Amino acid sequence: MFAHKKNASAFFLENYLKNIILALLMANYDDVINLSIRRSLFYPSSEIYKGPAGFYNYGPYGSAIKRKIVDLWRKNLVQKEGFLEINGSIAMPEDVFKASGHMTNFNDPVTKCKKCGAFHRADHLLKEKTGEDFKEAMSNEVLTNALRKNKIACPKCKGDLSDVSKLNMMVKVDVGVTPKNVYLRPETCQTIFTDFSRMMKTMRLKLPQGVSQCGKSFRNEISPRQTILRTVEFDQMETEIFFDAEKINEIESWEEVKNYKVCVQLAGKDKVEQINCVDLVKKKIVSGQVIAYYLARTQQLYESYGFNKENIRFRQLDNEERAFYAKEAWDFEVKTSLGWLELIANNYRTDYDLANHANGSKENLNYVYPDGKKVLPHVWEISIGVDRTFYAVVENSLKILNDKTVLSLPTSLAPLHAAVFPLVTNKEEVVNKAKEVMQKLNYLDVVYDDSGSVGKRYARMDEVGVPYCITIDHQTVEDNTVTIRDRDTTEQKRVKIEEISKKMHDLLWMNKSFKEI
Ligand SMILES: [Zn+2]
């Protein structure tokens, strides 16, 4: 009994110390930006010409990490759930956005400086000045009065600000071949709605059915800021799950998630609770099993991105915050140094989109059961911001101690699986052995690096999240062994070249620890 108690307190002490050390290592927004600029994870677009604000490029390591975020989404959500993934064009005709409501409703509240002419988001100015929760959905009158009451002036020149008005956020493009007005899509999901009838006809679609798309969207942000967190051009991974509203409590793999706990913060509450899927439905917190099921699957995806349950939540939106078409909405947020950051909009859009597109296009968008029964499907939307997820993943993985920076990405998100270093470059035998190792690992994403001291090479790879470095030295020539170094512990192990391929396989895909291999 006593021994057990002692073990338990030792365990708590160890965990307590571990948490303190982790907290000391935690990175903030500036650390992420510094790393990004130094290692070209992301940086301003058209930099040498000082391009417009709100556009960013991803460099070699950044785009590899971003691609792997998308790959994991595709593997863990899209493919596992049997969703159909499409890849549509970015420019779409005005008709689409008339039907979707974007031409009339997709507006931001703005105020214009009477002196310097700059536009500002009224809700953002108010939030920054007062710390209160001003929302973009608030009326022009409410926001104008608040600007006056708080005596807010132009942040650029201190000039007087105009009354608040709504500005449409659609980006219009000039396409020569069509007389129709054409816009860049403000969200990828509109292609999914316009392609729904084609999917029904050609893809043997059965409800419930998810259709997904990953790609670019554009919004005329008046005040792009915080680098990749608020941009004009951005990437989304979106899924629309079409289901029969009468069958909202029929979902095939319910057993797999029913006891899984989802982190939710109910509207009006200030605490995050962990509630299992059965209770979410039973207590009518969500409209039905379809929704609880996909909240669980979405949270599981973010756990695979390396987030702990303590740092994530689905925040329930109240009537005032919800988009007008949404019957139920949950923002998925993660805790960052900037506060809770919204990464995903989850919306129960009912039949709003299909009804409007059926009306706008005169196409019949009903789903027809084999017995002839027709329904207009309802939609559960999972709309993920890729760039914001990228930021949150990097901040969550970044550890800084003195001048040592390590990006402890989950292996599945690492830009490369390994780096291969010949210790010296002036010995042909060493270089040849290094090339032999490269050959053995040609099924992985591996880089060959022979410039600078080995210490500098390790540091470069640690900073961009490469989990393993393999070094070929003088001993390799004698006994055909190389060292593998673990990024997070800096532990090293000697292994035979014949076994390097299997060892890497065990580390990367068999979930074996460095000690076990
Ligand atoms: Zn001004």
Structure report:
With about 525 residues, the protein is α+β, with helices and mostly antiparallel strands. Among the domains are: about 60 residues, Herpes Virus-1 (2-Layer Sandwich), CATH 3.30.40.230; about 90 residues, Anticodon-binding domain (Rossmann fold, 3-Layer(aba) Sandwich). About 35% of the residues lie in helices and about 25% in strands. The chain is built from 18 helices and 26 strands. The strands form 7 sheets. The protein has a 9-stranded mixed sheet. Helix 3 packs antiparallel against helix 12 and helix 3 packs across helix 14. The relative contact order is 0.11. The site of zinc ion (ZN) has 8 residues, from loops.
Keywords:
single chain; 517 residues; alpha+beta; Herpes Virus-1; Rossmann fold; nine-stranded mixed beta sheet; five-stranded mixed beta sheet; 18 helices; 26 strands; 36% helix; globular; disordered N terminus; binds zinc ion
CATH architectural group of the domain at 416-509: 3-Layer(aba) Sandwich
Assembly context of the chains: single chain
Instruction: State the low-pLDDT regions, or none.
Output: 1-6
Shape: globular
List the helices and strands and how they pair.
Blueprint: H1 2-25, H2 29-39, E1 42-44, E2 56-58, H3 60-79, E3 84-86, E4 91-93, H4 94-100, H5 102-105, E5 107-112, E6 119-121, H6 122-130, H7 140-149, E7 165-168, E8 171-173, E9 182-184, H8 189-194, H9 196-202, E10 209-218, E11 233-243, H10 254-257, E12 261-265, E13 273-276, H11 277-282, H12 289-304, E14 312-316, E15 328-336, E16 339-350, H13 352-361, E17 367-368, E18 374-375, E19 378-385, H14 386-397, E20 398-401, E21 404-407, E22 418-422, H15 428-440, E23 446-448, H16 454-464, E24 468-472, H17 474-479, E25 481-486, E26 492-496, H18 500-509
Parallel strand pairs: 3-10, 12-14, 22-23, 22-24
Antiparallel strand pairs: 1-2, 4-9, 5-6, 5-7, 8-9, 10-11, 11-19, 12-13, 14-15, 15-16, 16-19, 17-18, 20-21, 24-25, 25-26
Bound molecules: zinc ion.
The site of zinc ion has 8 residues, from loops.
